[in-house]
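Example 3.2
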Amino acid sequence: MEGVLVTGTAQAGLAGECARCLDPIEDDIVARFQELFVYDDSEADEEDEGVSRLEGDMVDLEPLLRDAVVLALPFQPLCEEDCPGLCTECGARLKDDPDHTHGAPIDPRWAGLAALQDED
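Structure, written as tokens:
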């Protein structure tokens, strides 16, 4: 009889970008939450910051819902589980061109000689 135990489920739509290829993503998430809201006249210390309190006969669910939804968000959202992402050298989308390659890198010390070879 310390307070009111609130248990629930929240469903939210989310929109963002893939962490690898920057394609737009839209998805739905489900967040479950449970919190004990103690009565104002309870013996809990007033200085307890982690304690949720009833405000009269009302319960403020906003901080509880916000925390539950934020914790349910993916750390790095992906458009596909095996998304190849972007080329690190030129930024090309590897999903569109899976055989994307670059020539062997030229040592900058020999770059002047490579220019002479191209003239022939």
